[in-house]
């Protein structure tokens, strides 16, 4: 299965927490972070990044189902 990574640029505050947790999945790009790839194999670090994002800007989807951030 693959997951889709999304970052809402309107919410992202470029804290860098996602890039620190998973530098091969996320990168800081100017004033916002962005995923290096839109689709990835399932990776717990993507969920960890979504969980710790202070702006709650990261969404991880499995098809239409949101799997991250976790409640």
Describe the structure.
This protein is α+β, with helices and mostly antiparallel strands and 71 residues long. The protein is built from two helices and six strands. The protein has helices at 17-21, 44-52; strands spanning 2-7, 26-29, 32-35, 39-41, 58-62, 65-68. The chain is globular. The N and C termini lie far apart (22 Å).
Cα(first) to Cα(last) distance is 22 Å
- Radius of gyration equals 11 Å
**Which term fits the overall shape?**
globular
Q: Largest beta sheet: what is the strand line-up?
A: 4-1-5-6
Structural class: alpha+beta
Function: Ferredoxins are iron-sulfur proteins that transfer electrons in a wide variety of metabolic reactions.
Protein name: Ferredoxin
Pfam family, one: Fer4_13
Keywords: Electron transport, Iron, Iron-sulfur, Metal-binding, Transport
Labels describing this entry:
four-stranded antiparallel sheet; iron; two-stranded antiparallel sheet; 2 helices; iron-sulfur; 71 residues; alpha+beta
